[in-house]
Amino acid sequence: MRNLIISLLLSLCASTAWGAKASWITAADDSVNRPNTWIAFQKDVVMKTKPRSLKARIACDSKYWLWVNGNLVVFEGSLKRGPAPGEGYYDEIDLGRHLQRGHNRVAVLVCYFGRSGFSHEDSGKSGLYIDSDNAELCTNASWMSRIHPAYDTATGEMPNFRLSESNISYDARHAIDGWQTADVSAKYGFTPSVEIGAWGDRPWGKMTRRPIPMFKDFGVKAARFELHEGARRDTVIAFLPGNLQVTPVIDLTATQGGDTIDIWTNHSHMAGAWNVRAQYVTRQGQQQYESLGWMNGEKIILYLPKGIKVNGVSYRQTGYDTEVVGTFHSDNDFYNRFWQKALNTLYVNMRDTYFDCPERERAQWWGDEVILTSQAFYTLSLSSIDLMRKGMLELAAWQTDEGILHAPVPGTYKSELPGQMLAAVGLYGFWNYYMNTGDSATIRKVYPAVRRYLERFPLDSTGLTAAYKATWLWGDWGDNRDIRLIFAGWHYMALDAMARMADMMGLDADAAQYRATMEQIKKGYNHCWNGYSYRHPQYMGATDDRVQALAVISGIADESKYGEIFNVLKTQEYASPYMERYVMEALFQMGQGDYAMRRLKKRIAPMVNDKDYPTLWEFWDARKRGFRGGSSNHAWSGGGLIVIAQKLMGAETIDPCWRRFKIDPQYVTFGEASLSFPTLSGTVSTAFKRDKTQLTMSVGVPAKTEALVYIPSTATDRITIDGRALRTDRIVTDAQWAKAGKTAVWLRAGNHEIRVAK
């Protein structure tokens, strides 16, 4: 009991230490809450000794940049608001190594969006909050501040309603050069800040520690550029080495001040919408400027009046702090290029959240996120896991009073796409997260919200998921959507995932209830089988390839139907790039991997072969449409990468966290291929090479794990493992692991080579 009391007292002291000295502050100006307002803050801090460590808790609405003694320490701090409605995030930064003994000058530039969007909830009030063990660093009226006079909103079209960002204008004639280190009160008219609230006060609300890494800054790099002279104005096009998230940097000389330069990328007007761009107003002479609002694209484009000399164009790439550590290579150039384009598309759609596209929406649509996160587990370093966990917790926290889960959140979007929501909480979403991470704590947090959501899906008299009323049924892009069966398939897999979650948590009654409902849906779904395909009796369109695929991957369809379903999938091609991932997986599951690869290549070849765009498109024919209404970098289009890793290369986890996993390749399309990727248990690798005389397999098994490897032969006398003939006592005989025409063995930690003579 004594230890418990001491623990509680220590916890109380820790919680009250933060927030005891600091206040939310802003500049003493009536315009501080105007959208797209930039506020400069400065404070002198005296240190008796150089600190080894000095942690600061920093929050703002909406973004900040921080300097210590003129050195940039944080480039774009803070996350878009919304761990839950009315709440925000804070960063914890260790400033110790940046501070010196004696006098230090700390400067912060805050950008207040002043607009909600599809990924940000505006508080309605600009503000900065810094808390620290060093009282001098804490924000209060001793901080000097002012609205930065050079920043404004660019003229012309605003970014579309989905974006909380504005188009930034910077007038160099009103610059306050060197304000980060200058005596700002005397030189630039800074005045004491206004204290406007305490920690936890509205409108900023409860603050949650940033759950993802600070953004990665790749540094400023020069870009090759071309000048195209025009009759009235010139155009400069600078070429980037990919589709990147960048802040443009320009170096120019102007003979006079007051000329306006428009700063775009080739995505500033794309996908049927106006997106972010910027403006710069010159002063006389040579000057450099970095526009701090990130854009994405393959090109930076400057539109400038005659008489301005562009000395250079550079860019600072920033993005989510993760590394591409997974590898894939095959002897098929097309699929090597597809993999790389899918990987490019994945990374450009990661930042504050996963999103569907980086220019039009920057929004956490969960149909896209299910695709992206599954790719990340096979390609990116483990820091990427944090971004999915953040999204899961946000989705649950934004549940409505009626129990509806809706996305994208955080932000203003309120419509429900039930198919995407069921995918999010189902086998391919939340359960896939658990199987890759073993993170039961997060599953326990989101489980109540998902349970409540699934209560909204009753069954009809046939056993199928009842006709559902939602603000946007959707189901998929494209024609011939058999909506009732699309929803029933996703509903079935969501129930399956919840039953497994309930098993993991020991909720036996819940698990039994979910499985009983699954049996009813399965029966109702199979009543829609007409001998050739699945069709709901109320559906009058062409047979939908999507619902056949969902029946296969969910386990609703048994193997007796595979032949007819395969016939359907050879002729019906209505699935969008989003749903094609599931069609492809169904084909592999039915043993038709070769056709799955040929079908994907046929449909996605225009994207892969396009030399202008290094990413994948929203629609199959988006380029033909001129990207009007469809993006060129859409998150959901790389699902084939997952299927290649899981089904063709055969790498799938059996237990959470890859403690046991299987390697069961399907030897189609590639004569040789290799795959490696990180897991929380270590790096998993697999490769194969086949020729006329033998098949060679390589498998890398991390320490303290086991791999169940399927060898495509039952002629055990032709199989060697690590140079030795396969002993019969090593063959797995347990019926649950048996596969026709294959020999299964368990391999322990190490690098193994298997040879099969033909």
Summarize this, please?
The protein contains 15 helices and 34 strands. The radius of gyration is 28 Å and the shape is globular.
Walkthrough of the structure:
The protein is an alpha+beta fold and 758 residues long. The protein has 4 domains: 17-150 and 159-209, Jelly Rolls; 216-319, Sandwich (Jelly Rolls); 327-648, Glycosyltransferase (Alpha/alpha barrel); 656-757, Maltose phosphorylase, domain 3 (Sandwich), CATH 2.60.420.10. The strands form 7 sheets. Strands 10, 11, 15, 16, 17, 20, 21, 22 and 23 form a 9-stranded mixed beta sheet that branches. Strands 24-27-28-29-34-31-32 form a 7-stranded antiparallel beta sheet. It is globular, with a radius of gyration of 28 Å. The model is unreliable at 1-16 (pLDDT under 50).
* CATH class category label of the largest domain: Mainly Alpha
The CATH topology name of the largest domain reads: Glycosyltransferase
Counting helices, strands and paired strands, the structural category is alpha+beta
User: Which second-level CATH architecture of the largest domain applies?
Assistant: Alpha/alpha barrel
**Alpha carbon gyration radius:** 28 Å
Instruction: Kindly report how far apart the N and C termini lie.
Output: 70 Å
Helix % is: 25-40%
Number of helices: 15
What best-fitting shape do the alpha-carbon axes yield? globular
Would you report the number of β strands?
34
